[in-house]
Amino acid sequence: MILVTGTTGTVGSEVVKRLSAQGRQARALTRDLRKVEADQFPHIEFVQGDFDDGDSLQRACSGVEQAFLLSNSTERAEQQQIGFVEAARKSGEIRFIRPRAVLIRSLLNHRDQSEQTQYSLRGV
After folding, report:
1. Cα(44)–Cα(16) distance, rounded to whole angstroms?
2. C-alpha 22: how far from chain center
3. Residue 113 and residue 116: Cα distance in Å, rounded?
4. Does residue 121 sit within a domain?
5. pTM attached to this predicted model
6. Does residue 124 form part of some domain?
């Protein structure tokens, strides 16, 4: 299973849309479950968690093989990402996916043109 963080953000929400459209089972981490419309994403399990709450991160990482790690650019981002990696290690072996600028640009440039967006996340 793939875990996607930052799912209410611009990039994270596009990753979740693509995974769901491809029928891929994934888990999406969000601070506030009220901000997501889970019924629109049949293959996605939304879970509540926060980068500042190690226990919630460890629960989110349980049973996950890959993590697509996205976070805000704040002064705490580096420390939060380190905390996420530590929580993930406690949950088992997880491969981290580092988003590349070209993938992000592709997702953002074509997000409203679904007939033209055949970007695969197979490498994910």
Report:
1. 7
2. 15
3. 6
4. no
5. 0.77
6. no
Both tokens assigned to 105: 């640009």
Is residue 112 over pLDDT 60?
no
Q: Is there a domain that residue 26 lies in?
A: yes
Pairing of strands 2-4, 66-68: parallel
In the numeric block, the tokens 């799912």 are attached to: 7
Torsion of the alpha carbons at 47, 56, 70 and 81, rounded to the nearest 10: -170
SS3 content of the chain, % helix, strand, coil (to 5): 45, 15, 40
Give the model confidence (pLDDT) of 65-84 as tens digits. Answer: 999 988 878 888 889 988 99
Question: Each residue of 24-71: pLDDT tens digit?
Answer: 999 999 999 999 988 899 999 999 999 999 999 999 999 999 999 888
Q: Which residues contact residue 50 at a Cβ distance below 8 angstroms, ignoring those fewer than 6 apart?
A: 31, 56, 57
The amino acid sitting at 45 is E
The number of folded domains in the chain is 1
